[in-house]
């Protein structure tokens, strides 16, 4: 334990003054408004380290972090673990709003009555509710809110557990989600830190509360602390962002002297057809990979429907045997601990060159709560099982391209790890069928990719966040960053929404790039197979957006 005045940012990080104030705040609520690249997630990780190391969050009390997306919650959890170590990080809970709501429901379920009463083994389904037996994800926040509003014991239990609360990407908080936080922690002793970027508030379609950061500041008497520096992007890219900020929020532009330098690349590429676009971008990506850029540092961003808009590019990459993954429906799955465990096991037994996957596999699967002798014995059993599975996979009679062969080994591995260890990976796994559903979804995802060419290693590459190019919608890319970013289809037919919202979305897209940004548009975009509804084949460049790419 150290005194607050003895604490310094971990890893020698230098924080701008307002960031340092937010990190070391002792007794005030804070709302931090920051642009992309300002280090919002890192600010929260450093604040967690400060609170834990200085005893401002005294044992046994905990820190609660609530994020909008699964991968954001995971990213923050992992950063705190790296900054503070596993012992202190064990008192840091990082959830999505849905996961936090489920934790409330599971802990205080008997408080639900009438139609909302739930059985102990209730399930969660995508879109169907069965009284007492099954709820949807959309039901979780309202049910948790009902519990906290109606039950003083539940409200008191939550408030006694958490001394500090972090709210990440708070600009996207919906009305119900905000009400959940306000009901749980309003007029409580917990200190709240909310971070977000009003220029990135692109979730209005999901019911994001207009002006939620200002509302939070008023309701919680929170001190506003704006951050202005973008430490992510190269100067040339920052100047483009600054030109957009001048249009969106003139008071927030950065001085020219802070943006000097020629580092960074911005390209606008025009094409006649989608096939020309696909071939050119595939050649560009292939060149980046040959130069040593990691696949995980390359992203293709599309405003919507990447499985349609980027279909031609996907085919071109597949022809060149360049792994890519469309994260329209996979991002949340790979962020789940049990799905990562399953895929890492397959990765380790199918490929000897996976030291990181092996280390992560052993870390997650190990029974850390067991006695030393028992833990050592299990460690030996686990290593023997992995070694035997590797040997089986390499026998010529093993059905490499048959899903059932891999499933058999995975099931043996999960049985050895044991149900209690698996359910301990996440609070969401401790009720209903969530754990089994995710295991099956991970195996089904692997089965689909295995069917492409019968190669397990390449199937895993296409599922990997590390080994594959990532296709993302702009909604999915928030909070992420890449060395190389291609924004596909900067066209009026794609960026067609209300002008302010469309501008915010485009700003989010371009600000993901650290070093190299490519903007494309075509004259003709063929209607892809599977497209429904309106699809204009003749395309018009979104010149207003493209003009921001040009220096004054």
Detailed description of the structure:
The chain has 552 residues and is of the alpha/beta class. The protein contains 23 helices and 14 strands. The strands form 3 sheets. It has a 6-stranded parallel sheet with strand order 3-2-6-7-1-8, with helices on both faces. It has a 6-stranded parallel sheet with strand order 9-14-13-10-12-11. It is globular and about 60 Å long. The N and C termini lie far apart (53 Å).
What keywords describe this structure?
six-stranded parallel β-sheet, alpha/beta
- Detail the poorly predicted runs: none
| Fraction of residues in H or I helices | 40-55%
- How many helical elements? 23
For the biggest sheet, the summary is: 6 strands, parallel
Structural class, please? alpha/beta
**Mean pLDDT across all residues, rounded?**
90
Overall, the morphology is globular
Q: Count the E strands.
A: 14
Strand content: 5-15%
For the terminal residues, how far apart are their CA atoms?
53 Å
The spatial strand order of the largest sheet comes to 3-2-6-7-1-8
Outline of the structure:
The protein has 552 residues and is an alpha/beta fold.
Record the SSE blueprint.
Blueprint (H helix, E strand, L loop, with lengths): L16 H7 L6 E4 L6 H14 L8 E6 L2 H20 L2 E5 H12 L14 E3 L8 E3 H14 L1 H10 E6 L7 H11 L5 E6 L15 H8 L3 E2 L10 H14 L16 E9 H17 L7 E5 L3 H4 L1 H9 L4 E3 L4 H4 L2 H14 L4 H11 L6 H22 L9 H15 L1 H5 L10 H20 L2 H8 L5 E5 H4 L4 E6 L11 H12 L2 E12 L18 H4 L6
Parallel strand pairs: 1-7, 1-8, 2-3, 2-6, 4-5, 6-7, 9-14, 10-12, 10-13, 11-12, 13-14
Helix pairs in contact: 1-2, 2-3, 4-5, 5-6, 5-7, 9-22, 10-12, 14-15, 14-16, 14-19, 16-17, 19-20
């Amino acid at each position: 334990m150290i005194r607050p005045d003895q604490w310094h940012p971990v890893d020698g990080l230098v924080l701008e003054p307002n960031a340092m104030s937010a990190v070391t705040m002792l007794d005030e609520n804070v709302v931090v408004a920051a642009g992309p690249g300002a280090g919002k997630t890192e600010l929260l990780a450093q604040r967690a380290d400060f609170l834990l190391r200085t005893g401002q969050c005294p044992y046994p009390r905990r820190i609660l972090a609530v994020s909008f997306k699964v991968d954001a919650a995971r990213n923050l959890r992992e950063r705190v673990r790296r900054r503070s170590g596993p012992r202190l990080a064990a008192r840091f809970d990082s959830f999505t709003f849905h996961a936090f709501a489920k934790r409330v429901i599971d802990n205080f379920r008997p408080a639900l009555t009438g139609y909302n009463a739930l059985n102990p083994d209730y399930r969660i389904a995508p879109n169907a509710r069965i009284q007492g037996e099954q709820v949807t994800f959309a039901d979780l926040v309202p049910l948790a809110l009902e519990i906290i509003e109606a039950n003083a014991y539940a409200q008191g239990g939550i408030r006694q557990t958490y001394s500090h609360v972090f709210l990440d990407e708070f600009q996207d908080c919906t009305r119900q989600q905000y009400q959940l936080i306000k009901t749980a922690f309003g007029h409580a002793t917990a200190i709240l830190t909310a971070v977000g970027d009003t220029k990135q508030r692109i979730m209005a379609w999901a019911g994001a509360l207009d002006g939620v950061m200002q509302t939070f500041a008023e309701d919680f008497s929170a001190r506003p602390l704006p951050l202005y520096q973008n430490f992510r992007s190269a100067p040339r890219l920052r100047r483009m962002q600054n030109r957009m900020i001048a249009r969106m929020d003139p008071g927030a532009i950065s001085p020219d002297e802070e943006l000097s330098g020629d580092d960074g690349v911005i390209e606008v590429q025009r094409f006649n057809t989608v096939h020309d676009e696909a071939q050119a971008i595939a050649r560009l990506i292939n060149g980046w990979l040959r130069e040593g850029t990691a696949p995980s540092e390359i992203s293709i961003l599309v405003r919507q429907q990447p499985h349609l808009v980027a279909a031609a590019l996907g085919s071109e990459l597949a022809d060149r045997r360049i792994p890519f993954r469309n994260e329209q429906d996979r991002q949340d799955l790979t962020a789940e601990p049990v799905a990562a465990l399953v895929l890492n096991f397959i990765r380790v037994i199918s490929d000897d060159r996976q030291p990181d996957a092996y280390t992560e596999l052993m870390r997650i699967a190990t029974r850390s709560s067991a006695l030393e002798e028992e833990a050592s014995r299990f460690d030996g059993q686990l290593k023997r099982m992995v070694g035997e599975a590797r040997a089986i996979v390499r026998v010529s009679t093993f059905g490499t391209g048959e899903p059932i062969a891999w499933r058999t080994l995975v099931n043996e591995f999960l049985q050895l790890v044991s149900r209690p260890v698996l359910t301990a990976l996440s609070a969401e796994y401790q009720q209903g069928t969530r754990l089994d559903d995710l295991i099956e979804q991970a195996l089904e995802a692997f089965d689909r990719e295995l069917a492409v060419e019968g190669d397990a290693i390449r199937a895993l590459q296409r599922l990997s966040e590390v080994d594959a190019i990532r296709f993302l919608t702009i909604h999915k890319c928030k909070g992420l960053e890449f060395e190389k970013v291609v924004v596909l289809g900067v066209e009026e037919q794609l960026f067609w929404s209300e002008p302010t919202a469309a501008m915010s979305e485009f700003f989010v897209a371009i600000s993901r790039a650290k070093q190299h940004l490519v903007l494309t548009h075509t004259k003709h975009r063929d209607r892809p197979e599977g497209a429904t509804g309106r699809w204009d084949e003749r395309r018009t460049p979104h010149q207003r957006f493209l003009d921001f790419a040009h220096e004054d």
